[in-house]
Amino acid sequence: MVSHDEPPEQLPVDFGPPRPGARILPFLRRAEPAAPAADHPVGADGWCARGAELEPDDPAQAYEAYRKALELDRDHAEAHVNLGRLLHEAGHVRAAELHYRRALKTHPVQATALFNLGVALEDLGSPREAARAYEQALAAKPDDADAHFNLSRLHERAGRKAAAIRHLKAYRDLVRRKLG
């Protein structure tokens, strides 16, 4: 049985091309790691920064770098978020959820972890919990257009038209301002 307090020790992760019909998750976000020392990786921050550098070309090595960061600091929020995102994109949504929650234990208002948790909870079929995660993401970062959009969608599906319209309007206003 997997404990919700501890991330899984190792999961087989296939970072190859997506399976036919697999859902691509371009909306997940990577946490930006703290600036590492010049000769990283030294310590958890260095391994996390190394993972972020490796992701575009070698997600399997990025996965290993984030795991090393967590070996050095089990509560490294950015490493949990980024490892969770890699797992989520590889189809290991439950494991990703655990990493997002672990990041939130250390940094309860980490907007990226909250947003990604919302996406994971939607994928796991928990729309009410997903809506709560998006609401918390918006409390941490009120100008998060994507969280407004996702929350609007969830409210619409649940028949809460006024809330759906309010969040859709906020989304549109933020997008216009950004393009503006």
Low-confidence stretches: 1-26
Return the CATH topology of the largest domain: Serine Threonine Protein Phosphatase 5, Tetratricopeptide repeat
H/E series:
HHHHHHHH
Helix content: 55-70%
Specify the CATH class of the largest domain. Mainly Alpha
What fraction strand?
under 5%
In CATH, what is the homologous superfamily of the largest domain?
A: Tetratricopeptide repeat domain
Rg from C-alpha positions? 17 Å
The CA-CA distance between the termini, in Å, is 51 Å
Query: How many structural units, i.e. domains?
Result: 2
Report the count of strand segments.
0
Structural class by secondary-structure content: mainly alpha
Tell me the CATH architecture of the largest domain.
Answer: Alpha Horseshoe
Enumerate how many helices there are, as a single number. 8
Average of the residue pLDDT scores: 84
Shape: elongated
